[in-house]
Amino acid sequence: QLQLAESGGGLVQPGGSQSLSCVFSGFRASYYSLGWFRQAPGKGREEVACISNSGASKTYADSVKGRFTVSRDNARNTVVLQMNRLTYEDTAVYYCAASAMDTAWARCRASDFGSWGQGAQVTVSS
Length: 126
What we know:
Elements: E1 3-7, E2 10-12, E3 18-25, E4 33-39, E5 45-51, E6 58-60, E7 68-73, E8 78-83, E9 92-99, H1 104-107, E10 115-116, E11 120-124
Parallel strand pairs: 2-11
Antiparallel strand pairs: 1-3, 3-8, 4-5, 4-9, 5-6, 7-8, 9-10, 9-11
């Protein structure tokens, strides 16, 4: 059974940084694309960043390019989202997800990801 669990959310000031981690189990990491998505109040789920099974390739949403970095450690079954220069618009519930599709990391679409964590709240507020 595929399982993913996020940690690291919380309250952060504008301009600050925060790191989210996701530990996963139940599948062979090297076969899966991983992604981070978010959902703000009253809005649909949107992509944030995705990473290929090896970690060599990444895709970022335009809104986070240059501020967020996604990385993974397959030996530790972990994917991390490092978020810098946070703004109010980054406030959302953040989800990590896994996909068995080889190219899921490139399109980075929620519909391509079949397994999801429970989500972690990130609130940017002064």
